[in-house]
C-alpha cells in the first residue's frame, strides 16, 4: 500500500489529562506553540488523514477543552472519560462514542493531544505498515540513547513485538533496550474492541492501560508489530513548560527551514519565529528579529524586518516593512511601512503608499501613492491617492461618545501639525497650512489654514516662576541683551 493512500476508519485523540506539571489554569493541551495549541496540532494531523470519524476524549476542565475543540473542528466527536482512569479506558470510551453512530470497522489510529510535532505523513506510514502486514496492533516507536522512564519495546528474534514493559517493571536487560513506546497506535477496530473488555485495573496504578491490548491480542494469536521512526521529536510530548519550549523551538526550526527550501531568504533563523498558518512566497526576505503569526501572508519580493511582528497581516509583492507592529492590516504592492510604525486592524495601504516613522494607523485606508511619513496618528480615515500628510498630524476621530471618519481627497498637500476633527471631508487637490485645525469641510482646490495671532507677554517667567532655573536664565539673557524694545 502507498502511504499516501492510507486512510483510517477512525482517529481517537486522548486529551483528558490534567497536566499538573504545567502549573497553569489553562488546560495542558491548550498551551500553544507555532500558532496553534498542542491539541489543535494533533487534530490537524489527524484530519489530514481524512478519517471517516474522529473522536477527542476529554475530562480535565472538560467544558473549556470541549469549547476549544468545537471552535477548531466542529465535526470532531467530543467524548467524556468517566471516573475509571487510564489510557485504555480513554480509548474504550472514545471507541464507544464513535460506535454510537455505527460500529467502527477497519483501522483505528490512537494518538495524543500533547504530541504537537507528530506529522500526518508519519501516521500514514504507520497505517500502511499496519495494513500491509495484516497486524491487529501496530505501535509507533523510536530509539533514544537514554530511554529513562519510557516503556520499552520487547521484540522476539523474528522482530515481532511481544510486550511493552514499563520502566518501573523492567528487568536490567529490558532497561538496556533503546526502543521506546510512543503510545501512538494503529489497531484493528474489532480486535481493539474485544481486547479492551479484558483490560483490567489490576495494577499498581489502578488504571486501564492501552499497552495491555497488545499482550491480549498476541495471546489470542493476532499479529502485533511496531514501526520505528528516526525522528524522536515527532513522538515527544510536553508535560511542563520547559518541554513545551523545547518542542516550540524544534517546531519553529522546521517551519523556518521549510520556508527557506521553498525559496524564502531568512537571514537569521534563530531569531525568526513563524506560525504554521503563515504563508510566504518565494523571493521574500526576512531580516533578523521577525515574528509572523496567525493568517499572515507575504508575497514575492517583500522584505520584512528587522525587529517586526506581523499578525493576521497581508503583505503584497515588493512591499517593505521595517521595525513595525501590525495586526489585521493589508499592506499593498511596493508599499513602505516604518520604521517604528503601528498598524491596527482595518488599516489598508494601497500600492506604493507609505506609513512612516513613528506613525500609527487604525481602520484607515491610504490610496495608491498616499504618504503619511512622520509622527502621525491616522484613525478612521480615508486618504486619497497621491496625497501627503505632513509630520505630526492627528486625525481626531473620537469625541468621547462615538468615533467618526475623516475623508481626505486625492493629491492633497496637508501641512505639518494638522488636526482633522472628524467628521470632516477635505476635497481633491487641497493644500493646508502648518498647524491647521480642520473642523469644517474643505472644497477641492482650496487652501485651508488656521489664522491666529501670536502674543508675547514680556516678563511673565520672572513674575510667575521666580527663583526657577528658567527665570534665572531669562534674567541672565536680559543682562547680556540690554536695550531690547519693550
Mean pLDDT: 94
Strand order of the largest sheet: 14-17-20-23-26-29-32-35-38
Estimated share of beta-strand residues: 25-35%
Largest sheet: 9 strands, parallel
Structural class: alpha/beta
Q: N- to C-terminal separation?
A: 101 Å
Count of DSSP E strands? 41
Task: Kindly summarize this structure in a few lines.
By secondary structure, this protein is of the alpha/beta class.
What does this structure look like?
This protein is of the alpha/beta class and about 475 residues long. About 20% of the residues lie in helices and about 30% in strands. It is built from 10 helices and 41 strands. The protein has a 9-stranded parallel β-sheet, with no helix packed on it. A 7-stranded mixed β-sheet has the order 5-4-1-6-10-7-11, with helices on both faces. Helix 6 packs across helix 7.
What attributes characterize this protein structure?
9-stranded parallel beta sheet; 10 helices; 22% helix; 7-stranded mixed beta sheet; 41 strands; 486 residues
Layout of helices and strands:
Layout (H helix, E strand, L loop, with lengths): L9 E6 L16 E2 L2 E2 H10 L5 E6 L3 H11 L4 E4 L6 H13 L7 E6 L7 H13 L4 E7 L8 E4 L5 E5 L6 H4 L3 E10 H8 L14 H9 L4 E6 L11 H21 L3 E2 L6 E2 L4 E2 L4 E2 L3 E4 L3 E2 L4 E2 L3 E4 L2 E2 L4 E2 L2 E4 L2 E2 L4 E2 L3 E3 L4 E2 L4 E4 L2 E3 L2 E2 L4 E4 L2 E3 L1 E3 L4 E2 L4 E3 L9 E3 L4 E2 L4 E3 L2 E3 L4 E2 L4 E2 L8 E2 L11 H5 L4 H12 L6
Parallel strand pairs: 1-4, 1-6, 4-5, 7-11, 12-15, 13-16, 14-17, 15-18, 16-19, 17-20, 18-21, 19-22, 20-23, 21-24, 22-25, 23-26, 24-27, 25-28, 26-29, 27-30, 28-31, 29-32, 32-35, 33-36, 34-37, 35-38, 37-40, 39-41
Antiparallel strand pairs: 2-3, 6-10, 7-10, 8-9
Amino acid at each position: 500500500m502507498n502511504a499516501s493512500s492510507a486512510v483510517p476508519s477512525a482517529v481517537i485523540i486522548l486529551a483528558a489529562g490534567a497536566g499538573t506539571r504545567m502549573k497553569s489554569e489553562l488546560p495542558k493541551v491548550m498551551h500553544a506553540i507555532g500558532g496553534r495549541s498542542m491539541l489543535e496540532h494533533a487534530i490537524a494531523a489527524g484530519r489530514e488523514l481524512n478519517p471517516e470519524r474522529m473522536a477527542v476524549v476529554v475530562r480535565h476542565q472538560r467544558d473549556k477543552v470541549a469549547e476549544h475543540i468545537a471552535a477548531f473542528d466542529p465535526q470532531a466527536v467530543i467524548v467524556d472519560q468517566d471516573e475509571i482512569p487510564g489510557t485504555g479506558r480513554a480509548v474504550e470510551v472514545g471507541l464507544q462514542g464513535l460506535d454510537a453512530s455505527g460500529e467502527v470497522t477497519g483501522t483505528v489510529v490512537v494518538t495524543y493531544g500533547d504530541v504537537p510535532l507528530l506529522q500526518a505523513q508519519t501516521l500514514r506510514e504507520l497505517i500502511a505498515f499496519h495494513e500491509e502486514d495484516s497486524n491487529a496492533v501496530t505501535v509507533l516507536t523510536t530509539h533514544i540513547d537514554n530511554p529513562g522512564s519510557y516503556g520499552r519495546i520487547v521484540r522476539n528474534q523474528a522482530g515481532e513485538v511481544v510486550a511493552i514493559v514499563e520502566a518501573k517493571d523492567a528487568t536490567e536487560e529490558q532497561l538496556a533496550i533503546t526502543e521506546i513506546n510512543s503510545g501512538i497506535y494503529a489497531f484493528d477496530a474489532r480486535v481493539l474492541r474485544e481486547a479492551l473488555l479484558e483490560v483490567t485495573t489490576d495494577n499498581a496504578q489502578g488504571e486501564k492501560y492501552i499497552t495491555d491490548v497488545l499482550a491480549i491480542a498476541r495471546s489470542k494469536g493476532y499479529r502485533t508489530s511496531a514501526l520505528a521512526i528516526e525522528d524522536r521529536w515527532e513522538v515527544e510530548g510536553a508535560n511542563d513548560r520547559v518541554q513545551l519550549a523545547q518542542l516550540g523551538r524544534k517546531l519553529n526550526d522546521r517551519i523556518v527551514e521549510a520556508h527557506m527550501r521553498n525559496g524564502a531568504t531568512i537571514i537569521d533563523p534563530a531569531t525568526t519565529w513563524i506560525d504554521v498558518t503563515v504563508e510566504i512566497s518565494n523571493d521574500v526576505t526576512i531580516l533578523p528579529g521577525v515574528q509572523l503569526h496567525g493568517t499572515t501572508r507575504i508575497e514575492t519580493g517583500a522584505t520584512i524586518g528587522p525587529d517586526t511582528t506581523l499578525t493576521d497581516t497581508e503583505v503584497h509583492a515588493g512591499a517593505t516593512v521595517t521595525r513595525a507592529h501590525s495586526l489585521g492590516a493589508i499592506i499593498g504592492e511596493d508599499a513602505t511601512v516604518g520604521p517604528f510604525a503601528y498598524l491596527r486592524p482595518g488599516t489598508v495601504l494601497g500600492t506604493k503608499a507609505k506609513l512612516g516613522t513613528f506613525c500609527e494607523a487604525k481602520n484607515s485606508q491610504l490610496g495608491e501613492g498616499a504618504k503619511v511619513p512622520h509622527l502621525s496618528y491616522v484613525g478612521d480615515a480615508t486618504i486619497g491617492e497621491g496625497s501627503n500628510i505632513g509630520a505630526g498630524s492627528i486625525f481626531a476621530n473620537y469625541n468621547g461618545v462615538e468615533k467618526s471618519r475623516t475623508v481626505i481627497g486625492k493629491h492633497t498637500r496637508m501641512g505639518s501639525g494638522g488636526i482633522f476633527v472628524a467628521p470632516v471631508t477635505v476635497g481633491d487637490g487641497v493644500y493646508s497650512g502648518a498647524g491647521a485645525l480642520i473642523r469644517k469641510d474643505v472644497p477641492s482646490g482650496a487652501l485651508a489654514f488656521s489664522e491666529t495671532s501670536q502674543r508675547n507677554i514680556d516678563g511673565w517667567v520672572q513674575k510667575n516662576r521666580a527663583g526657577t532655573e528658567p527665570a534665572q536664565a531669562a534674567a541672565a539673557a536680559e543682562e547680556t541683551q540690554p536695550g531690547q524694545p519693550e
